[in-house]
Amino acid sequence: MQRQAKVQVKVWGEYACFTRPEFKVERISYPVMTPSAARGILEAIFWKPEFRYEIRQIGILSLGGQQAILRNELKNKQGKKPILIENDRAQRTSLILKNVAYWVVADIVLTGRAVDPVAKYRDQFNRRIERGQYYHTPYLGTREFAANFSPINEKDVVQPIDMDIGTMLFDLAFIEDKSRKEMEFLRHDETGTRVVAGFAKPIFFEAKVENGWMHIPKERYQQLYVLEGQDALRVD
Asked: Considering the domain boundaries, does residue 86 fall inside one?
């Protein structure tokens, strides 16, 4: 049985912010979309525990420009106790992107929970793209910057851009570890879905845009699966 199938989608929006993690206080965006942000958009459109998305490449349809804005943010996370805005509000400057558009190419890769052929999930994804359906509103980096999406058409042309971005966030590995209960998250595996405790570990890669395309190294996904202790059934 075939274990992976290619999907693609056009995404765009008026504003975007793909935050660089090395800046602790102010939000500074990468110049282009990160693989984790692209994965988040695809999962917002269609997601099942039977497969995972592996981003293969991101094309730049519109690079957009940079814009500095001042935003009110909460200094603490919302918990069980109410937050008094006047005490927890902080004004922070963000350097964001404006008027961006991307061509996202990804593989749907079946996991050990899959019983249906991968073509079924690919066709469901394509139907949702054509109808504009989604599970929750997709966004470009942060939730306040909603993303539009549509099928790719013959008018979509990748810009001939070359750019050496440098070290970029690839994704976060959510690692189950009883000795480091820093957060709780859902684990989907052959035993079902369960809540586990552990921590998140960032994975990086050296990003480069060549002739308008940023290619994502496949080996980073294998590194992600090893860290999470999960095996996506894949065909290289």
From this structure: yes
Q: What are 182-203's pLDDT values in tens digits?
A: 888 888 777 778 888 899 999 9
Question: 60: closest CA among 12, 5, 15?
Answer: 12
Tens of pLDDT, residue by residue over 34-91, are: 999 999 999 999 999 999 999 999 999 999 999 999 877 766 666 667 766 666 667 7
Domain coverage including residue 47: 4-228
Buried b (16+ CB within 10 A) or exposed e, 47-84: bbebbbbbbbbbbbbebbeeeeeeeeeeeeeeeeeeee
Structure tokens at 14: 């008026």
Q: Which position has the token pair 């997601």? A: 47
What SS3 state is found at 96? strand
Number of structural domains, the chain? 1
CA–chain centroid gap for 38, Å, is 4
Nearest Cα to Cα of residue 31 among 98, 93, 92: 98
Instruction: Return all residues near 213 (Cβ < 8 A) that are at least 6 apart.
Output: 57, 58, 59, 60, 158
Are the beta carbons of 226 and 173 closer than 8 angstroms? no
Any idea what the CATH number is for the domain that residue 58 is in? 3.30.70.2660
Q: Is residue 236 part of a domain?
A: no
For residue 234, is it within any domain?
no
